Amino acid sequence: MPFDFSIQDYDDQYKGALMDISLPWLEGNDLLEPADIDQLTHPERVLAAGGRILLAMAEGKPVGMMMLEPFGNGVAEPFKFGVLEAYRNRGIGKALMEATIDAARAMGVHTLVLTSHHSLKAALHIYESYGFRYEDHDHVAFELSDIAMKKEL
Q: Going by C-beta distance under 8 Å and a sequence separation of 6 or more, which residues neighbour residue 8?
């Protein structure tokens, strides 16, 4: 039976949901850093930079998210990709990835770059299935990040 959900742009009324979605996977994988809290408590910075925050909505609430921040020169980063545990394995992650790629193209982005951690197997699987390729890991904002990936659009 199909699960009913939709993808929509962020609205300030859902600011608290950003932490609710991200903290469980960050803390559960021992990956929480001060930069994470800063990003999650200041989503307006992503929007002010011309980025997008996409939310997966189900049962009247946000259950998944992905932020997309442009860096200029046609490059952007998708990050804070998460789905609440109770809503996983229902196609929400794939729908968020597709919506993020579509949003990036609409923004004129030609290259997506991201960093992640080897323990985030489900996210890495989705990235790989959408054509992200592993790159040399040289400079990142997160100390605990140990993987870099790239996708040309």
A: 54, 55, 57
Closest CA to 79 of 7, 20, 145: 145
One-character DSSP codes across 132-148: -EEE-----S-TT--EE
86 closest CA partner among 67, 58, 114: 58
Which residue in 148, 78, 147, 79 sits closest to 112, CA to CA? Answer: 78
pLDDT digits (tens, 9 = 90+) for 25-78: 999 999 999 999 999 999 999 999 999 999 999 999 999 999 999 999 999 999
Please report the domains of the chain, with CATH numbers, ordered by start residue. 6-152 (3.40.630.30)
**Per-residue pLDDT for 128 more than 90?**
yes
pTM of the complete model beyond 0.90: yes
Residue 63 and residue 58: Cα distance in Å, rounded? 6
d(CA 77, CA 145): 14
DSSP 8-class letter at 74:
T
Task: Give the phi and the psi of residue 72 in degrees, each rounded to 5.
Answer: 95, 165
